[in-house]
Specification:
This protein has 290 residues and is mostly helical. The chain has a domain at 40-192. The protein is 59% helix and 4% strand. It has helices at residues 2-18, 44-51, 55-71, 76-85, 89-100, 105-116, 119-125, 134-141, 146-152, 160-185, 199-208, 215-231, 239-244, 263-272, 285-289; strands spanning 25-28, 31-34, 153-154, 157-158. Strands 1-2 form a two-stranded antiparallel sheet. Helix 1 packs across helix 3 (55-71) and helix 5 (89-100) runs antiparallel to helix 6 (105-116). The longest helix has 26 residues, at 160-185. It is globular.
């Protein structure tokens, strides 16, 4: 199972990087020119085809969640309902990890909410594509996840059909995998023997890797890991994950001081302006008085 999760990590990284690539370049007359970007394909089927390579990995992660949820004592019904309503792998794995380690329900909920907080700005950015009444918009918004959001992004605008097509296939794969994991969970003595203990760190490493593009991001990641490692032996389960989010404060920077305005600028400009000699026949006021 460990090679499968390694393949899953590579698939997630590949899908995230492909969505950020620009149009290819072509050489013409000894110079490099940007090739005209092809018109992106729209439609429900286009979204489903775009996300199809990820479905085996999504189903594998869903199955691992179902198995680990049973091992943590969540129960079959709770596991299936959580996948159907939450539909967020990172948050669900966080809940299972906290509960499996003996943490409280409150700590598990806080960890899940913090991990899903990113969906707030993502939903606001794509809110205009959802149509109909509240119930319809609620159901369509349920299909907004990282992969469907990235695939439907068109330079700040979103293709509704691509988002829903990709999200629907991901939803089916995730819930089908969860059901398989729940069914198989009772027959497994220890999920770690199949390498399922690697699912949780593999998922978050796949989400973290594309974000390490600056020194500040690397510093925040290392600080968060250090906080979690330091608190794990001395705090209840779930607390290290919550406390590690404080590392994001590394990204806060003090705004640079703006240059002085008003009279100070005028005085500086006057000092820098070269003095002009007096015109012939004109005297300065002080010279005229003397």
């Amino acid at each position: 199972m460990r090679p499968l999760f390694g393949h899953t990590t590579r698939s997630v990284l590949a899908s995230m990087s492909e969505s950020q690539h620009s149009a290819p370049t072509q050489r013409s007359a000894g110079r490099v020119e940007s090739a005209p970007a092809s018109e992106p394909v729209s439609g429900y089927r286009a979204g489903a085809r775009a996300v199809l390579p990820l479905i085996p990995a999504v189903a594998a992660f869903g199955a691992s969640f179902g198995v680990l949820a049973q091992a943590a004592g969540m129960g079959a019904t709770a596991s299936l309902v959580m996948s159907a309503t939450t539909f967020a792998g990172s948050a669900q794995f966080a809940v299972v990890s906290v509960l499996g380690a003996g943490g409280t329900v409150a700590a598990a909920i806080v960890a899940a909410v913090l991990l899903n907080a990113r969906y707030g700005p993502m939903a606001l950015a794509a809110a205009q594509v959802f149509r109909g009444g509240r119930l319809r918009r609620l159901l369509e918004a349920q299909l907004l996840v990282d992969e469907s959001w990235a695939l439907s992004n068109r330079d700040g605008r979103f293709d509704r059909k691509v988002m829903l097509g990709a999200g629907a296939l991901l939803y089916v794969g995730w819930n089908a995998g969860t059901a398989l994991g729940v069914a198989a969970g009772d027959n497994l003595a220890d999920p770690a023997t199949l390498g399922l203990d690697a699912a949780f760190p593999a998922l978050f490493l796949a989400l973290l890797a594309p974000l390490l593009r600056s020194r500040t991001a690397v510093a925040a990641a290392l600080l968060g890991a250090g906080i979690a490692l330091a608190l794990t032996p001395i705090t209840p389960a779930g607390v290290p994950v919550i406390a590690a989010t404080a590392a994001c404060l590394v990204g806060l920077t003090r705004p640079r001081s703006l240059p002085a305005t008003g009279q100070a600028d005028e005085g500086q400009e006057a000092e820098e302006r070269p003095s002009r000699p007096p015109r012939p026949g004109c005297s300065r006021p002080q010279e005229a008085r003397s």
